[in-house]
Amino acid sequence: MPAQPTPGPRMDVRGAVDLSSLARSATPPGSPGGPPAAGAWVRDVDPTSFAEVAQASVGHLVVMVLWAPWSQVSRTLVEDLGALADEDGGRWLLARVDVEANPQIAQALGVQSVPAVVALLGGRPLPLFEGQPGRAQIREVLDQVLAAAVANGIAGTVAAAGCEPQEPEEPPLPPLHQAAYDAIARDDLDAARAAYDEALVQNPRDALARAGLAQVGLLARTTAVTDPVAARTAAAAAPADVDAQLVVADLDVAGGHVEDAFARLLDLVRVTPGDGREPVRVRLLDLFEVVGPDDPRVVAARRALASALY
Questions:
Q1: How many alpha carbons lie under 13 Å from residue 277 in its C-beta half-sphere?
Q2: Element (H, E) at 120
Q3: Where are the alpha helices (DSSP H) in the chain?
């Protein structure tokens, strides 16, 4: 086996050939004398499925073996790689390409002789070796390329053949949170507010209940605005009108224009004298809960509010 370069802390594959333009072909997959039976993490690839496998390599490592049915060396290598794929249990996918049935894939990868093994990382090929090295040598190369994949953020796992990946089951909501959620679903905002209030009575540090209460408040206020265009017109005509600006800030947050809402209310704090700015401060704090205290826009606006007040 040719000497393999030892990958550094991060293997940069950005300069490799882009496989996205590989044309799909009507060449029938497979040929007489096919490969050994596929294991759970093995897939036979033809031009129709090649693009899908290349795309999958964005999430997990793909090791592609190009083999020929007439070559016993090829068949032995395919068997060894299949056994190693089983050992690793989904850390990578073995993609088998019969080059006699699918010569265009070998041409796209620049493979001149078989067997040959190429890794796919993020949709790009990385030649590994040709010929039939010993299984221990193959393991060493696989460990290196797996480390390179992880260093490049490609650390997903492969679902076993015949198994659909299952989404992790979400834990049930606490009873009062579930009651609030159900109330919102049936458009009973008063009941939702009462459920969140009770949750906060039971646990004043319940951040999710506090956020839920703020969201219910925003939903109630924006639902009460029967003519959003008229509300915006009124706010534009009276920039110092606190109530008018609060309405538009709510509409902005509900519509996803968070930074506009925060800028509007911060400007209002700066120009409103004395106690008149207290409702603006309170509304800002409420909207911070809606957006989330860790959101960068909230962090920046909170600093700006402190500066404006003090």
A1: 17
A2: strand 116-121
A3: 47-56, 72-88, 103-109, 135-151, 175-185, 189-202, 207-223, 228-237, 242-254, 258-271, 278-291, 296-309
Give Cβ neighbours of residue 297 (< 8 Å, ≥ 6 apart): 258, 259, 262, 291
Tokens found for residue 98: 């019969």
Give the C-alpha distances (Å, rounded to integers) separating 133 from 5, 85, 115, 140, 234: 16, 16, 11, 11, 78
Q: Which of 100, 94, 87, 153 is nearest to 120 (CA)?
A: 94
Tens-digit pLDDT string for the chain (310 aa): 444 433 333 333 333 333 433 433 333 333 445 566 777 889 999 988 888 998 899 999 999 999 998 888 988 999 999 999 999 989 999 999 999 888 999 888 888 889 999 999 888 899 999 998 999 999 999 999 999 888 888 888 887 654 444 455 567 889 999 999 899 889 899 999 999 999 999 999 999 899 999 999 999 999 999 999 999 999 999 999 999 999 999 999 998 899 999 999 999 999 998 888 999 999 999 999 999 888 899 999 999 999 988 8
Query: Whole-prediction pTM value?
Result: 0.48
Nearest to residue 42, comparing CAs of 184, 207, 162? 162
Q: How far apart are CA 144 and CA 151, in angstroms?
A: 11
Distance CA(262)–CA(298), nearest Å, equals 8
